[in-house]
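Progress against Task 2.4 (sequence-to-structure conversion) is shown through the following example record, which the project officer requested during the mid-term review.
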Amino acid sequence: HGPKGGEVVARSSGQVAPAIDLPRRNQTLINYEFATETDLVEAERARLLSQHMGAFLLITYLVLPSVSRTQFSGLACTYFPESGDSYLSVDTSVLCSLESPEYTTLLAIDIPMIIIYQSIPIMYAVLLFKHRKLLNPGFREEIAGR
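Structure tokens generated for the chain above:
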């Protein structure tokens, strides 16, 4: 069997080293006799990126719901009719008012963090769209054959 798309096969004196998985579509063969140091460094960088990207995607997928709930609960205010004011539900010493320095500091930190963290599902969609042909290579042929 030949290498799958996106793998690097290192060949030296007729022996085949283990394949290094690269996030590329085209096959790249590295002949150690003629490979430059840059080729080897690039192959190792691609292998590490692939390995760590998988861990990043798994961790963010697992913790996204709980982190999202925590981020949004930090913005929830509870109205107290006795005083006529609203206070943060998670810390009732903080007045929910733009005149409160604690609340404005919270908003200045929490809102950008919510935007950044909630963009992770968008990143998932972009990655899936970008690699859709690798994920389902026969999809177009299946449609054309119907």
